[in-house]
Amino acid sequence: MIALHDYYQGRDSKFRGELTLEIQRNAAETVRRVNSLLAAMADDGVVPEVDAAGSLVSSGWRPSTVNARVPGAAVRSKHLTAQACDLFDPEGELDAWCMQNQQRLAFIGLWLEHASATKGWCHIQTVPPRSGTRIFYP
Fold first, then answer.
1. What pLDDT shows up at residue 36?
2. Which ranges of 16-63 does DSSP label H, i.e. alpha helix?
3. Whole-Å CA distances, 63 to 69, 70, 72, 97
4. Which of 18, 36, 59, 105 is positioned for an S-S bond with 86, CB 3.0–4.6 A?
5. Dihedral sign (CA 41, 37, 93, 48)
6. Is CATH 1.10.20.10 what the domain over 4-136 is classified as, yes or no?
Protein backbone atom coordinates (compact mmCIF):
# COMPACT_ATOMS: atom_id res chain seq x y z
CA MET A 1 0.00 0.00 0.00
CA ILE A 2 1.05 3.60 -0.50
CA ALA A 3 0.42 6.71 1.58
CA LEU A 4 -0.03 10.32 0.50
CA HIS A 5 3.55 10.89 1.62
CA ASP A 6 4.74 8.31 -0.93
CA TYR A 7 2.58 9.84 -3.65
CA TYR A 8 3.74 13.43 -3.07
CA GLN A 9 7.43 12.42 -2.92
CA GLY A 10 8.23 15.50 -0.82
CA ARG A 11 6.77 17.86 -3.40
CA ASP A 12 3.91 18.84 -1.09
CA SER A 13 6.47 20.76 1.01
CA LYS A 14 8.79 21.98 -1.72
CA PHE A 15 5.96 23.20 -3.99
CA ARG A 16 3.42 24.13 -1.31
CA GLY A 17 2.25 27.15 -3.33
CA GLU A 18 1.11 24.90 -6.20
CA LEU A 19 -0.63 22.35 -3.98
CA THR A 20 -4.23 23.50 -4.29
CA LEU A 21 -7.18 22.03 -2.42
CA GLU A 22 -8.33 20.40 -5.67
CA ILE A 23 -4.94 18.73 -6.14
CA GLN A 24 -5.01 17.51 -2.53
CA ARG A 25 -8.46 15.99 -3.06
CA ASN A 26 -7.36 14.39 -6.34
CA ALA A 27 -4.24 12.99 -4.67
CA ALA A 28 -6.25 11.43 -1.85
CA GLU A 29 -8.60 9.80 -4.37
CA THR A 30 -5.72 8.60 -6.54
CA VAL A 31 -4.00 7.02 -3.54
CA ARG A 32 -7.28 5.37 -2.50
CA ARG A 33 -7.75 3.83 -5.95
CA VAL A 34 -4.08 2.80 -6.25
CA ASN A 35 -4.41 1.00 -2.93
CA SER A 36 -7.56 -0.76 -4.17
CA LEU A 37 -5.58 -1.84 -7.23
CA LEU A 38 -2.67 -3.09 -5.13
CA ALA A 39 -5.09 -5.05 -2.92
CA ALA A 40 -6.68 -6.68 -5.99
CA MET A 41 -3.24 -7.59 -7.29
CA ALA A 42 -2.26 -9.02 -3.92
CA ASP A 43 -5.38 -11.20 -3.97
CA ASP A 44 -3.97 -12.72 -7.16
CA GLY A 45 -0.49 -13.15 -5.70
CA VAL A 46 1.13 -10.21 -7.50
CA VAL A 47 3.66 -8.55 -5.22
CA PRO A 48 5.00 -5.24 -6.54
CA GLU A 49 8.69 -4.46 -6.29
CA VAL A 50 10.07 -1.31 -4.70
CA ASP A 51 12.68 0.97 -6.21
CA ALA A 52 16.14 1.71 -4.76
CA ALA A 53 14.57 4.27 -2.40
CA GLY A 54 12.12 1.66 -1.11
CA SER A 55 9.08 3.15 -2.83
CA LEU A 56 6.39 1.66 -5.05
CA VAL A 57 5.75 5.10 -6.56
CA SER A 58 7.97 6.09 -9.48
CA SER A 59 6.06 9.32 -10.01
CA GLY A 60 3.08 10.85 -8.27
CA TRP A 61 1.98 14.49 -8.27
CA ARG A 62 4.15 16.64 -10.51
CA PRO A 63 4.15 20.41 -10.21
CA SER A 64 4.55 22.08 -13.61
CA THR A 65 8.29 22.72 -13.19
CA VAL A 66 8.89 19.06 -12.32
CA ASN A 67 6.72 17.83 -15.20
CA ALA A 68 8.63 20.04 -17.65
CA ARG A 69 11.86 18.22 -16.72
CA VAL A 70 10.46 14.71 -17.22
CA PRO A 71 11.54 13.35 -20.62
CA GLY A 72 8.49 12.57 -22.76
CA ALA A 73 5.98 13.88 -20.22
CA ALA A 74 2.72 15.13 -21.71
CA VAL A 75 2.15 18.87 -21.47
CA ARG A 76 -1.29 18.13 -20.01
CA SER A 77 -0.18 15.14 -17.94
CA LYS A 78 -2.67 13.90 -15.37
CA HIS A 79 0.26 13.96 -12.92
CA LEU A 80 -0.11 17.77 -12.89
CA THR A 81 -3.58 17.46 -11.36
CA ALA A 82 -2.71 14.46 -9.14
CA GLN A 83 -4.94 12.18 -11.20
CA ALA A 84 -2.17 9.77 -12.23
CA CYS A 85 0.41 7.57 -10.59
CA ASP A 86 3.37 5.65 -11.96
CA LEU A 87 4.20 2.50 -10.03
CA PHE A 88 7.67 0.95 -10.16
CA ASP A 89 7.33 -2.05 -12.49
CA PRO A 90 10.77 -3.16 -13.75
CA GLU A 91 9.57 -6.55 -15.04
CA GLY A 92 6.17 -5.42 -16.34
CA GLU A 93 4.23 -7.61 -13.92
CA LEU A 94 1.86 -4.84 -12.83
CA ASP A 95 1.21 -3.81 -16.43
CA ALA A 96 0.55 -7.45 -17.36
CA TRP A 97 -1.93 -7.88 -14.51
CA CYS A 98 -3.76 -4.69 -15.50
CA MET A 99 -3.89 -5.70 -19.17
CA GLN A 100 -5.45 -9.04 -18.18
CA ASN A 101 -7.88 -7.52 -15.66
CA GLN A 102 -9.56 -4.63 -17.43
CA GLN A 103 -12.90 -5.25 -15.73
CA ARG A 104 -11.25 -4.93 -12.34
CA LEU A 105 -9.61 -1.69 -13.49
CA ALA A 106 -13.06 -0.45 -14.53
CA PHE A 107 -14.55 -1.46 -11.17
CA ILE A 108 -11.81 0.47 -9.32
CA GLY A 109 -12.10 3.41 -11.74
CA LEU A 110 -8.65 3.36 -13.32
CA TRP A 111 -7.25 3.67 -16.84
CA LEU A 112 -3.90 2.25 -17.95
CA GLU A 113 -1.35 3.62 -20.35
CA HIS A 114 -0.43 0.71 -22.61
CA ALA A 115 2.43 -1.40 -21.33
CA SER A 116 4.40 -0.93 -24.55
CA ALA A 117 4.72 2.78 -23.71
CA THR A 118 5.73 2.34 -20.08
CA LYS A 119 8.82 0.16 -19.83
CA GLY A 120 9.85 0.04 -16.17
CA TRP A 121 6.70 1.59 -14.71
CA CYS A 122 2.94 1.13 -14.72
CA HIS A 123 1.01 4.36 -15.45
CA ILE A 124 -2.52 4.45 -14.10
CA GLN A 125 -4.91 7.37 -13.90
CA THR A 126 -8.27 8.12 -12.33
CA VAL A 127 -9.79 9.88 -15.32
CA PRO A 128 -10.32 8.56 -18.84
CA PRO A 129 -8.05 9.63 -21.69
CA ARG A 130 -9.54 11.47 -24.68
CA SER A 131 -10.09 8.12 -26.42
CA GLY A 132 -12.12 6.87 -23.47
CA THR A 133 -10.53 3.43 -23.75
CA ARG A 134 -9.53 1.57 -20.59
CA ILE A 135 -6.05 0.87 -21.98
CA PHE A 136 -4.68 3.71 -24.07
CA TYR A 137 -1.61 4.86 -25.95
CA PRO A 138 -0.08 8.23 -25.07
1. 98
2. 21-43
3. 10, 11, 15, 29
4. 59
5. negative
6. no
